[in-house]
Design a protein that fits this description.
7 helices; alpha/beta; 2 domains
C-alpha cells in the first residue's frame, strides 16, 4: 500500500515537472524542472527494485545532463531591467504590483524572450543616476507622471528595437526612451 502511494506521488511529481518544463519561458527553470523530473524517475526505479537503473538515471539524467545544459546556457544572456521609483524604505508588494500591472513591463519581457534573453526585473531604491552609473542594468525604467521613461545606453541596440516596437504599436506616448552615454547626460 505504501509503495502504491509513493509511486502515485512520484508519478504526479513527474507529470507536474514535465508540464512545468514545457510551459516555462525561462530556460534555466526548464533545466531545473528536467533535473527534478529525472530525480523523481530515479526514485521510481528504486521502487521497482532496479537500483542500477536508478543510479544511472540520477547521475546521468539529473546530474550530468542538467550540468551540460546549464553550462551551455552560460552563453545565454540575461537582460537585467532595473525599475526605480520613489521608494522610501523597503519596496512594498503594492508598489511592485503597480509596476507589474503596467503593460510596458510585460511587453519588454516578451521582447526579451523573443530575442533569447532572459528578462530579470530588479526593483531598486536607487535613483536613476545611481542605477545608470552602477552598470548593473541593461535598461532602467522609471515611472513618471507623464508615463514610463526607459533609460538605455547608446550602445545598447535593443533599446532602439524597443523604441521601434512601441512606436509600431502606437504606444510610444506612454513610453519615452532616453539614451545616454554617461550618467552626466541625465
Amino acid at each position: 500500500m505504501n509503495t502504491l502511494i509513493a509511486e502515485a506521488v512520484l508519478l504526479l511529481v513527474m507529470a507536474f515537472m514535465a508540464i512545468l518544463t514545457i510551459r516555462t519561458q525561462i530556460l534555466r527553470m526548464a533545466i531545473i524542472y528536467m533535473g527534478v523530473f529525472s530525480l523523481a524517475a530515479s526514485l521510481v526505479y528504486v521502487l521497482y527494485r532496479a537500483p542500477d537503473v536508478a543510479i544511472a538515471e540520477a547521475i546521468i539524467g539529473s546530474g550530468l545532463v542538467a550540468l551540460l545544459y546549464l553550462s551551455a546556457l552560460k552563453r545565454y544572456r540575461v537582460y537585467t531591467i532595473g525599475v526605480v521609483g520613489e521608494h522610501k524604505g523597503n519596496i512594498t508588494d503594492k508598489e511592485i504590483l503597480k509596476v507589474e500591472r503596467n503593460g510596458v513591463i510585460h511587453d519588454i519581457r516578451d521582447f526579451c524572450i523573443e530575442r533569447e534573453r532572459e528578462p530579470q526585473t530588479v526593483y531598486t531604491r536607487e535613483t536613476v543616476k545611481q542605477a545608470v552609473s552602477n552598470n548593473h542594468y541593461d535598461i532602467v525604467i522609471e515611472e513618471h507622471p507623464e508615463g514610463i521613461r526607459l533609460y538605455g545606453h547608446y550602445d545598447n541596440y535593443l533599446v532602439d528595437e524597443l523604441e521601434i516596437l512601441f512606436s509600431m504599436r502606437n504606444r510610444d506616448r506612454e513610453l519615452k526612451v532616453i539614451r545616454y552615454r554617461s550618467e552626466e547626460e541625465l
